[in-house]
Each structure stands twice: as structure tokens, then as C-alpha cells.
Amino acid sequence: MKIIKYNITMVILFLINFTASAQSELDNYLRTAAERNPGLKAKFTEYMAALEKVPQVGTLPDPTMVFGYFIQPVETRLGPQQGRVSITQMFPWFGTLRAKEDAATQMAKAKYEMFEEAKSKLFYDVKSTWYNLYFTNRAIAITRENIEILNTFQKLALVKIETGKASAVDELRVEMEILELENQLKKLLDKLNTQNITFNNFLNVDEQQQVFIPEILNVDKLNLNKEAILDSIRLHNHQVLNLGFKEASYSYQQSVARKAGKPEFTIGMDYIFIGEPSNTMSLSAEPGKDAVMLPMVGLSVPLYRKKYTSMVKEAVFMQESARIKKVDKLNILESIYEKAHADYMDAERRIDMHIRQIELSGKALRILESEYATNGKNFEEMLRMERRVLMHSLELEKSRTDLNASIAFINYLMGN
Fold it and tell me: I need a labelling partner for 41 at 20 to 30 A (CA). Which of 16, 72, 103, 109 fits?
């Protein structure tokens, strides 16, 4: 067998450049998904709509203007009253508008966290689908390589059959293995097309667009310990933050409800138009040009307290509900993280195990090939060992995919 020696520096530089290129492509896909995914755009639009709620609730109610015309003028010493214009403005209790603004602001922040949650989930979906595309692509390549190996075995079996050192059954066994792998290859090609369409739909691009898949998947590592990751989940998970902002919003809504039970003030002005007096003996110095201006101050007293008490209780219950939901969410996320971490550790162990298994089964396969080429024995065992090499090769790539996907999921839980 011919052995090719590479300059180790060139190999390392190649791997570094290839890994950097693969990561760059994945970053580009994530950027495209963030810019084009319609579901993410809808979440951001909901956040923008929630922001517009703040100036609505923090503004005074519109002033009221009333115009009245006297069909039958009312005679006064200044002249007949012909019309009246009233302008009034209502003012809620002190701090009510600010409390409403604060409540709406916190609710808008909750909406923003749901947008961030959708973005984190989208990034995880893009990454995991990209990793699955890599595995399917590698599975296709490995299956094709094994079909070529089996074709070589088939030729070797035919030679042994012709020399009388092997049974014709050996060639039939190889043919059966090839047919099985060819069927598996077709299934993998269909799966690759489906995954490709799913990936492009996340990006909202042409579903048949070619997706860049690396030849070698760089295996990531978790750089934080379990306690640091759990702290990050508690502090930065977007679902938890969403519930925290809702809890704060309901706290401000309690203040709004309490202030709603306070009096409201109304300030206004009446302007009465006076016409020409019919009595020429009017005492007015300038008859017909005088008007009466009447300033007004009103007070709305909330007498029916049951309604306002219920409003406060409703806000208290909603705040307590948000607090309990947050505790429940943290418990659920901790359990989910423990499973994700176990999956990560399992994938890490499987990678080491399958690398070793490929090495051992490869050595065994070469020994069996040599024996069969010499005396035509153990052909069935040689096929069985070849299947083990295929199985461990596929499982190694699956383990790499699972490890990277588990890291992506843990990053999603941390709100990254």
C-alpha cells in the first residue's frame, strides 16, 4: 500500500481554514434567517405594535368641546344669550398616566423577549438542520464508498469461484448486500432533498437553493461548567425574562387599578355669546359685545368601590400567576438542560468509542480480506465485519452531529 506523507503544518492550516470557512457559511445562513424568516418578522412586528401602546395609555383623554345654540334666546340685562361653547378637560389622579405607561412598557419588553425567544429558536433550528444535512451528506458518501468496496469483494469472490476455492453463494451474498445498500442510498438521497427544502424554508429562500455542507464537521466543546450554564439560563433565558417583565407589568397594573379608584378632576370653561339687547335701556356700556365666561371645576367621585377592588385583586392574581409560571419554567428548563447535558456527554463518549471501533474493525477486516484472498475462507465473516465498519462510520458522524446539536440546544436555553 502506498503511503503519502504530508507536511503537518500544511494539514493544520488546511483544517483551520476549512473549519473557519464552514463556520462563516453557517453564520451567513443565520444572518439570512434573521433577516428573511417571516415568522421572526411577525414576532418583531408584534413587539413594535406593543411599543405603540405606551404613548396611547400615557396621554390625557381628549378635551371635550360642546356648542349649544339657544332656539329661544334667554334675555338678560346684557342682551339675549344666543349660544354657548363649553370646553372641558379631564385629569386622572396623580401618577395614573405614569403607572399606565410603566405597565405598557413592561408588557412591550415581554413582547421583545418573545421576539428574542423566536430568534434563538430559529437559530437552533437552522443549526440543527444544517448538522443533519451534514450527517445525511456524509452517510451518502460512506454508503457509496461501501458499495464500491462490496463491488471489489464481488470481483474477488468471482475470481475465487473460478479457481474453485469459493462457493457461488459468496457472490450472491455480496449481491444481496449491494442491493440493500443501494436501496439505503436512495432513501438517504430523498432525505437529503427533504432536509434541504426544510433548511431553505427557514431562510425563506428558493427551496432548491444549494446548501454548503462541509466535508468535515468541526466538533464544538462546552466552555462553561454546569453551574455557570444554569446561572445563564436563570438570568438570560428569554421565556423566563418574558415572564419577569409580565410580572412587573402586573405590578404596575395594580397601581393603575388603585389610582382608578381615586377621584378624577375636570377643568373647563363656558363661553356664552350675547346678542344685541331688545331693551334700549340696557345698562351695558357696549350692548351686544359682551360675553359671559364661566370657569368650571369638576370632581368625579368613584362611589362604587367593588369594581375597583376587583381590578386590584385581578392584577394581584395575574402578578402571582406570572411569578409561579416563572418558577415552574425554571424547573422545567433545568430538567431539559440536564437531559441536553447528558446527551452532550453521551455524544462525546460515542465519538471516542466509534473512532476506536473503526480502527479495530478496520484491522480485522484487512486480516479477513487477506485470509480470503489466500484460501477463500471466512467470506461471510468478512461481509459481517465490513458491515460493522459501515455501521461505526455512520455512528461516528451521527455522534458528531448529535454533539454539535446538543451544544446548539444548550446555547438556545441560555438565550444565546
Answer: 103
